[in-house]
Each structure stands twice: as structure tokens, then as C-alpha cells.
Design goal:
This protein has 307 residues and is an alpha/beta fold. It folds into 3 domains: 65 residues, no CATH class; 38 residues, no CATH class; 184 residues, no CATH class.
Length: 307
């Protein structure tokens, strides 16, 4: 039978931490394989799961959003109605009680989308996967299509807003945030996933550069690594060496529990960088499981604080 854990988490987020459930969305992946296998394929007593639930939570009753940013194309029938409204449409009150005026047929640039998002997840030859194969890695197995985070980023944020993903994986969210001119932060516990996620941001696939970048980001003390260009001779050996920062040093395994963690924001970059949590430090950091985070910017410093 199904676990109710996710619903219990939702209720606790609202009841104990003051979140509001603004709306629930359903991501429909038409290419999703039948699951759970035991119930669907073997016993044949369930239909296959085809949707994943996405909860839009807010700390206020009126969160920022703009549906005009995510309008969908009109259907052929609606296009015809708009073009020939006098021939096909008469404004009047419907049996449901809705009073439909002649403004219904104004061309507003598109239709308001439903909360059912039909987005196939079929990408198999992306730059990310090709680079993963070059370094002998399979990549993160739980990759979402870019269209999924893009919908919410464009719906709920504006350019230069800050996007925080505390379970980054292959960092699809960060890649879309970069493409849409948002600032972003990506947290990831598995350093291999962090290292391979950088492949989403390089300007071209150069085998030597890809291998050097992966090896550099796989080091424990790697930081201040510039991504997105091919390195010149002599630069590869300098990658990953420690540099002084203006506000705070990178996290190390010996770090004790901080209530506030600070990171320097590189000037001129939308991508603040990838933040790796060392295994020995995971239990002592403020962004461990069950802790709510707040992120704010003060000057050139990004401050992550546990509520």
C-alpha cells in the first residue's frame, strides 16, 4: 500500500512551520515506465503511476506569481473563435452561473495553463550525459526535464531573483536559473553528482577540459573554480588550490555546527557556485534534514541561516 509520509510532511510544514499550500501541481510524464512493478507488472492489481505531485508552498497568503509568464498557446478552436468571434460566439450567462462577457474572446497572448503539466522526460543524448560518459560516470539517475523547473521559475520569480535548490542532484534547476537570468545556489551531498553537474554549464565539449574539470571538482578542497570556458595552459594545475575569501572560508570536514554560514558571492556571476557538504560534517551543519533555511544577500556575502 502507499506510504502517507509525504502527506504528513506537507501537513507538518503547514501546521508547525507556518507554510501555506498555495496550489498543488501534477507533473504528467507520458513516457514514465509502469510502476510500482510489484503491483502493476507482476500482480496486475494497480494502474501505473503517471504523475508526480509538486506542492507550491508559501510563507504568505499572497505569494509573488505572474501567470502571464507561463501562458500556453491557444488551441486551434480558440484561435478560430478569437478571429471570428461574431460568427461563432454569443456572450451570455452559462448554466453554471458564470456570466461570460465579450471580453472572453480578447487575444491575451495565450491560455492560462492548468495545474497538470504534461512534460515528457525522454532526453538521452544531452551534453550532461555525454560528458558523464567521457569521465566514466553514469550521472544522477533522478534527472528532471528542464521544462519542469522552468515553469515554476518563470511563474514565481523575476530575473535576478535568487533560486535555492537544497537537493540539487544534476542541478537542472541551476542550469535553468542561469538560462533565465536568475541567481542560484545548489546544495548537493554527493560530491560526484556535484562535479558532474558542472557539465551543464560549459560552453563546449572538450575532452581534456571535461576530464580536468571533473577531477578538480572531485577534490575535497576544491573551490573558486570558474566554469564555462576552456582553460589555457598552466591554469589546470592551479585549479582547486585554496584562496582567501572576503567573507568566510569554504566548509571543511572539521567544521563545527554554525548557526549562520557565509559564502562570498563572485562579482558578475549569476551562479554563486556549488556548495558541497562533506560527509563527516553533514550532521553538524544547519541545513541537515528537517531544518528550514533562509538565504539572504548582504553586500557580496550570501548568508545561509537555519530557522
Amino acid at each position: 500500500m502507499r506510504s502517507l509520509y509525504n502527506y504528513r510532511v506537507l501537513i507538518r510544514l503547514c501546521d508547525e512551520l507556518g507554510f501555506r499550500l498555495a496550489e498543488e501541481f501534477f507533473w504528467y510524464n507520458p513516457a514514465k515506465l509502469p510502476s510500482p512493478i510489484e503491483w502493476v507488472n507482476k500482480r496486475k492489481i494497480r494502474v501505473k503511476d503517471a504523475v508526480n505531485t509538486v506542492w507550491w508552498l508559501s510563507k504568505t497568503d499572497y505569494p509573488k506569481a505572474n501567470v502571464k509568464n507561463v501562458l500556453t498557446p491557444y488551441s486551434d478552436r480558440m484561435e478560430k473563435l478569437i478571429q471570428e468571434k461574431l460568427q461563432y460566439y454569443t456572450p451570455k450567462k452559462r448554466p453554471s452561473g458564470h456570466d461570460i462577457s465579450d471580453r472572453f474572446l480578447e487575444d491575451r497572448g495565450g491560455a492560462i495553463p492548468p495545474n497538470l503539466l504534461e512534460i515528457p522526460n525522454t532526453a538521452s543524448m544531452t551534453q550532461y550525459l555525454r560528458c558523464c560518459r567521457l569521465v566514466g560516470e553514469k550521472g544522477n539517475p533522478s534527472r528532471f526535464p528542464k521544462a519542469l523547473p522552468r515553469f515554476f521559475i518563470e511563474f514565481l520569480t523575476d530575473p535576478n531573483d535568487l533560486i535555492l535548490d537544497i537537493f540539487a542532484g544534476s542541478n537542472t534547476t541551476g542550469a535553468v536559473a542561469e538560462e533565465t537570468r536568475r541567481k542560484w545556489i545548489a546544495f548537493e551531498m554527493e560530491q560526484t553528482y556535484l562535479a558532474t553537474s558542472a557539465f551543464r554549464f560549459i560552453d563546449k565539449i572538450d575532452e581534456n577540459y571535461v576530464r580536468n574539470l571533473f577531477n578538480t571538482l572531485s577534490k575535497k578542497d576544491s573551490h573558486d573554480v570558474e566554469i564555462g570556458r576552456t582553460l589555457g595552459e598552466g591554469e589546470v594545475n592551479n585549479l582547486g588550490k585554496k584562496k582567501k575569501t572576503q567573507a568566510g572560508e569554504p566548509l571543511h570536514e572539521e567544521d563545527t555546527k554554525p548557526e549562520v554560514t557565509e559564502f562570498t558571492i563572485p562579482k558578475g556571476l549569476n551562479a554563486y557556485g556549488f556548495i558541497h557538504v562533506p560527509k563527516k560534517a553533514r550532521k553538524s551543519l544547519p541545513f541537515k534534514q528537517g531544518v528550514v533555511l533562509k538565504a539572504k544577500i548582504e553586500g557580496e556575502t550570501l548568508i545561509i541561516q537555519a530557522e
